[in-house]
TrEMBL record:
Family under the similarity heading: Belongs to the 5-formyltetrahydrofolate cyclo-ligase family.
SUPFAM superfamilies hit by this protein: NagB/RpiA/CoA transferase-like
One Gene Ontology term of the molecular function aspect: metal ion binding
Names of required cofactors: Mg(2+)
Coiled coil: none
Superkingdom, natural source: Bacteria
GO terms under biological process: folic acid-containing compound biosynthetic process; tetrahydrofolate interconversion
Species the sequence originates in: Streptomyces chartreusis
Protein name: 5-formyltetrahydrofolate cyclo-ligase
Length: 204
């Protein structure tokens, strides 16, 4: 219980562990079928239909799959920007040139990431995106996103704000990860929409 007598909210670290535990139980088939459905739902978004440049990411492990979506966007002629993790956890960006162009990069003790090969465009490149697709572990009824805790996307969102850029922010999740409430901190920013395999939900 908290000092107010109400049940204390679980902290972000506990919640992250819980959501990751559920994800880690998914089979490869679960992940694959969800990825196909997720791509279909996301491609129906009007924001993506009108986008010239989309900042996205390559899913790893049991994350909701993004590669089918990246390929479909690229086939539409959309310029897709993908992140490359910097030593300070900030993100540089490069253009997606197909699955063969991805490089598997091991960052210390963290999980290996798939990053764009080729030219690095600099951390500011994200400010030119028409839509930003964000990873996460959950989103709540207000649009507050629970990330993995590395802070990389907090920097991206702060950079967009400083640049006066206001692209729609869309988080890609499984259906069970849309919840009533996640803890928030003063720097957290709500997203505009969540896409799950079963549909799209928008936030005010």
């Amino acid at each position: 219980m908290s000092h107010t007598g109400r049940p204390a909210e679980p902290d972000k670290r506990t919640l992250r562990r819980e959501f990751l535990t559920v994800r880690n139980r998914l089979t490869a088939d679960d992940v694959q079928s969800s990825a196909t459905a997720l791509a279909g739902r996301a491609l129906e978004l009007p924001e993506l239909a009108h986008a010239d440049t989309v900042a996205a990411y390559v899913s790893v492990g049991s994350e909701p799959g993004t590669v089918a979506l990246l390929d479909a966007l690229r086939a539409r002629g959309v310029r897709v920007l993908l992140p490359a993790l910097l030593p300070d956890n900030d993100l540089d960006w490069g253009a997606y040139a197909g699955q063969d162009s991805l490089e598997r990069v091991q960052h210390g003790g963290k999980m290996a990431l798939f990053e764009p090969g080729g030219e690095r465009l600099g951390p500011e490149a994200v400010t030119g995106a028409d839509v930003v697709l964000l990873p996460g572990l959950a989103v709540d009824a207000r649009g507050m996103r629970l990330g993995r805790g590395g802070g990389s996307y907090d920097r991206v969102l702060a950079r967009l704000e400083r640049a006066g850029a206001r692209p729609p922010l869309v988080v890609l999740l499984y259906d069970t990860e849309v919840v009533e409430r996640v803890p928030e901190e003063p720097h957290d920013r709500p997203v505009h929409a969540v896409v799950t395999p079963s549909g799209v939900r928008r936030f005010g």
